[in-house]
Design goal:
heterodimer; A: about 110 residues; mainly beta; about 60% strand; B: about 110 residues; 7-stranded mixed β-sheet; 4-stranded antiparallel β-sheet
Amino acid sequence: KQEVTQIPAALSVPEGENLVLNCSFTDSAIYNLQWFRQDPGKGLTSLLLIQSSQREQTSGRLNASLDKSSGRSTLYIAASQPGDSATYLCAANLRGGSEKLVFGKGTKLTVNP
Amino acid sequence: NAGVTQTPKFRVLKTGQSMTLLCAQDMNHEYMYWYRQDPGMGLRLIHYSVGEGTTAKGEVPDGYNVSRLKKQNFLLGLESAAPSQTSVYFCASRESGTRADTQYFGPGTRLTVL
């Protein structure tokens, strides 16, 4: 059974700091790995999607990497801002017959001014 | 485009009552999903649909039914609500069947069953 783990569960940093959020998955047979952002009381917003054949994806100050062999993905946020404060979720899209995204429990990020 | 919308935003039910959650998308997406999000559990897939008239079970389908009579709408029904179904429910949609596309999420419905 695929399990997705995110460490740490919560992170507090000062504004301007570069930071890394971690995501690990137990089954390397994934189709892709996605990172989402969730603001309090809101739905999820897709940030980056990395296909299994890719090593990384970049969007603005965000860079996500994927290492299938070690079962790890990281989300790098450069020059963090208070507006980056949110919960960040990673989700593994499994290969196989059933349609399924397996989500981690998220990392709650607080960027202090 | 409104994207993915969910109705209602909040609801309180008594045990045994029934209700239907409505999800609507205006992006002409083929795939639609219902998830529930519980503290400490992450998001879990309840049911999904790969096109109009189709439905399939996800990870936690018991106690729920779904219907996709129109491409733009995906309904989630609770026939006899239980306190264990207290949760935040999210609907999502995706354009194609290649799994290369991301899912777009609605704002959620917060359901409390007393």
